[in-house]
Amino acid sequence: MRFCIVLILILMAAGWLQPRPADPTPPPFPFSTDDVDALLRTVVGEVRSQGDLEIAAVVHVIYNRWRSGRFGKTLRHVVWKKGAFSCWNADDPNRVVISQPGVGYLARYTRIRNIALATLRNRVARSMVDPTYGANHYWHPEAMRIKGQAPYWAANFEVCSKIGSGVFCRL
Fold first, then answer.
1. What does each C-alpha distance from 26 to 36, 74, 118, 144 come to in angstroms?
2. pLDDT surpasses 80 at 32
3. Which residues partner with 166 through β-bridges?
4. Whole-number Å distance between alpha carbons of 103 and 121
5. For the segment 67-92, what is each residue's pLDDT rounded down to a tens digit?
6. Could you tell me the CA-to-CA distances from 117 to 6, 13, 29 in Å, in that order?
7. How far out from the chain centre does Cα 63 lie?
8. By the 8 A CB rule, do 11 and 17 touch?
9. pLDDT tens digit string along 118-140?
10. Are the CB atoms for 153 and 125 separated by under 8 Å?
């Protein structure tokens, strides 16, 4: 053991073994303004009344779907996929809220916007752990009880975590 430490010190002194400098350049942000707008609208439509952790968790779900490549090539494709997020359904009352023209309406949701953008940036930079443990779906049992039905896919999921009133799972 002592020999290894001495050898490492000699190699470092000779300049043959140098610590690798940290890359000061963060990875490029792979999302367009339209992608980010679609993500923000989805988060507002889905969990605007929830706590900070659950808001961030839904961003993780959207990011996990995008990263897997199975749900769409862009964030817009992921969130607009038919049936993926109920706030985009034509009969969902949240559709009116998220269909406002322009991004100015999001100013009313500054807290949500800040949480969602910070979460997305940190995930891209790999500086944040995913609290959903790779979940690509989520649901709220209480809301489904009120509606009288669970999601059609609920029988086939693996629960990854529970955050706030949401159950986060992976198919």
1. 18, 20, 14, 40
2. yes
3. 163
4. 19
5. 999 999 999 999 999 989 989 999 98
6. 47, 44, 11
7. 4
8. yes
9. 999 999 988 889 999 999 999 88
10. no
| Contact by Cβ (8 Å): 58, 48 | no
State both tokens at 88: 């985009």
- Per 3-state DSSP, the chain is made up of helix, strand and coil in percentages (nearest 5) of 50, 10, 40
Contact 138/68 with Cβ under 8 angstroms? no
Consecutive H or E run containing 79: helix 75-80
* Element (DSSP H or E) covering residue 69: none
Rounded CA separation 118/17 (Å): 37
For residue 34, what are its two tokens? 């339209």
Q: Identify the band that residue 109 occupies on the pLDDT scale cut at 50, 70 and 90.
A: confident
Q: Indicate if the pLDDT at residue 158 is higher than 80.
A: yes
